[in-house]
Amino acid sequence: MDVDIEDILAELDRDTTAVNRSDPRSDAATDAGTVVNSSFPQEQALKGRGSGAVATASSQEDYGRLVAHWRNERCAPELLQYPHALMGRTLARIQAQMEHLEMLSMDFMEGNGSEQSGGNGSSGSRPVNNNRMLPLLCMEAELERIKFVVRSYVRCRLAKIDRYSLYLRQVGEQVDDDGFSPLDAQLSRDELVYFRRHAEITLKLFNDTILKHLPPDLQAINDTEGAFNMVDEPDWAKFVFVKVTGPPDGRLDADHQLTRGQDGEYFYQTTIHELDEDIDLSIGSIYVLRYNVIKELLADGKVVLV
Amino acid sequence: MAYFDLDDVLCDGSEVPCRFLHTVPGLGFLDGRPGGTVTAGTTLRLPLWLAQILAVVVAGGEGEEGEGEGEEGEDNTPFVEMQVPGALGPKVLAAVRADPVALDVHAVQPHFYALALRWCALYADQDLARQVAGLLLQRAQEINGFAVAGGAQGGNTDSSNGASITASSPFLATLDEWEKGVYRDAQRARRDASRWGR
Amino acid sequence: MSLPSHLQETFSPEEVQFVVENQKIKIFPRITTNRRRNGRTGDASGDDSNQWKMLTVDGSVLDNMVAMRSTEVALWLALLLKQQSKCNIIIPGWLTVKSLDAMLQFEKRNKDRFGTLPWDWQVLSEILFKQAADDFSDPIHELRNRIQDLKEIRQMKVLQGLKFMNESHLQLDNLGLMEINEMRPFIVDIMDKLREFHAAVNVQSAVDDDAGDEDMSMGTGIYSDRDISASSRTH
What we know:
Number of strands of chain B: 5
CATH class of the largest domain in chain A: Mainly Alpha
Distance between the termini of chain A: 27 Å
Number of domains of chain B: 2
Helix content of chain B: 40-55%
Oligomer: heterotrimer
CATH topology of the largest domain in chain B: Methane Monooxygenase Hydroxylase, Chain G, domain 1
Largest sheet of chain A: 3 strands, antiparallel
Order of helices and strands of chain A: HHHHHHHHEEEEEHE
Strand content of chain A: 5-15%
Number of strands of chain A: 6
Number of helices of chain A: 9
Number of domains of chain A: 3
Largest interface: A-C, 65 and 60 residues
């Protein structure tokens, strides 16, 4: 992924101020929450997600959050919010690590050269040499893994942007007083650029090949009046698999949305509006539900998509 | 239903019988008689996309879009009255009740479920919805069974090779277009998991 | 397309494996990286090419390994070290003949629910069989047989449970991630269609809405003409 270091640094600068106020654009701010040992990896990531400043943005936790975002994004029918701060930090770390590894491997090549000619005797024997390569090997493997997640995540989002481009245009038209539209929070800057260009090119194609040959009142590509809605919206009621993890900080008593049952177990009460049906979601259980039923719980980190 | 969904568009082309409630000149071409008049009471088979509009738009100038002419003093009824297409008719439904799995849905209507869905939406036909949903669920079990078997063998169902679906079993040849999609999805998931495990 | 359509709402098995590989597992290192133990405290502090500067895992754990003292690292890392002959993997307790037999007993006795295997049981067992075969104390073929049996018996339960798909919801506690992923496209396709039929006729609450087993039941859609008895729960 082509990343301009200036952009990343600029993003980072913006992030440090974002940490101190509840900026809707910064990704899930976290408590210094307790990390309860839980089975699903993203539970660890989303624990500690509440209101407040990012207390610990350790690279491990960030990776956990990144994987959680990736999994949620794949499974969700709509385009989720872009985690600006998280991605900024992650991309910066990746860049830094790439440079570090390059440096290391150059050292190795030079080091090997001098040893073979009987140079430094401090690490003469071969097994130690092998050991010296080991961290490098691991770091490279790890780098590939994190790059995979980032790429896959971006691909997933781009696919959704392509699919729902007309709908996003509609959303983007709701500009508030400061000139910001919801899209600014939902998409990254690069994604916005991609989205606009893609939409423009596609629209031009439609126009030139078909639309301009149609009668004037049939030329719209986003006609929402009439029998059919031309704009494809995400299917909010699509079924998704969710696992109920409970409040990210693990404090069951403090969570007002939780109800306690007769057997002492905790559950969330939800309603399927289309069916006028109430469902209790117990902690630790796996359900197949409509996305709109759990959308808010998902945003709060109380359930995860699996 | 997505605007650009191909199956939906194809389904729109299926024909339903329509009884004309008015006499309309100039529509003879629908019946193969260009320039002729269609008299009230005639039943013609019209494609769903057309029938739908004509069944809703009221003839007689009540300030509607005035797309056609009705005779003066005509009561406010639509141009046509749609009748239940054969695919959703009593014979088919009886077969559905008798043996859902044996029914050759594809032969009845390649876009059976899409058509049924449209019809239910138009007429809020609960009974039909109930029956078709039941049909769907029972056939789903069979489809999954085949998908599991097909996937475990590492069968190939790339969409470029759609013909292989029908070749392998008589049941699979009876699937309507939507069911085929379900089979493909299930089989692919099974096949990928099976390949991974090796 | 940026992402192939069949991957747009589910994962490939390889991706499921990737997720599982992020989990931690216990190992016995065969090398010592802890400098004090190594007697290398006198080393020039400038030589940090040996330092494990990691992004996704805790580098200090790796920097402090002592041979044959157990420690915990991410699975992918453990596999890498194993491949380089730098560690032995400690097989988790549930992956023994005894434990799997107990689990099989449970599965057989309880037809309407799934046993509490770890969510990554299928992936983990397969990976360890292939890459850490020598770390098992029980014979691998015995373990494989039991894993296969577990897979089959649970699959049967899933098949039974499919009869209860509806337009409302399903509850599938204790299903493993690979199992979920395999069933996902099919289940979502069918339930989405049922939902569409329900929405098309737009009924608010059905005449014969039998609440049955309250909260945990499998949804009481008007299309479920089965008796919602206890056996319908795959709990």
